[in-house]
Amino acid sequence: MIYNIRGENIEVTPALREYVEKKISKLERYFEEVPNSEANVNLKVYNDGQRIEVTIPLHSLVLRAEETNDDMYAAIDLVVSKLERQIRKHKTRVNRKSREKGGAKYAFAEMEGTTSTTILEEQEDDEFEVVRTKSFDLKPMDSEEAILQMNMLGHSFFVYTNAETDATNVVYRRKDGRYGLIEPQA
Description:
The chain is of the alpha/beta class. The protein has 4 helices and 8 strands, in the order βαβββααβαβββ. It has 2 domains: about 120 residues, Double Stranded RNA Binding Domain (2-Layer Sandwich), CATH 3.30.160.100; about 45 residues, SHC Adaptor Protein. α1 links the parallel β1 and β2. About 5% of the residues have low confidence. This is Ribosome hibernation promoting factor.
């Protein structure tokens, strides 16, 4: 795995870089084959704390987690724990999907010490139930109008057709209160 470690309002010292690489490399034990991807790590320092964001794009999914703490090293430990929980929680589903698509037999490795009861518990938690289906016409508009519509509806995201590109886009409210835009690649 290749590590892309960036700092915002913090200098990424060799000790900090080594600690991040050491901790994130522990995730490699969960994979059948070590992923040939880039782990993007953003370290940020704010007045109220230190934040780490980790994004690991893989072939069939994207692992992403972020954590905030007063201590950067503690934040790194917490984010790695969060990523491990994500992998354990979704391991069964991802492996099943991978086999169905004719890919590798397992995206995630079967771990030693996993009992059949743990696998059953994971499979029970593994099912997502769609409780409501909604359909609507996508009206052509710009992102400002979409944000206005989203706020008027009281939703945290809004799907619309971009009037300029005729592509389906999504605007969403970020945790920091600002807005994000998701658009398809050309």
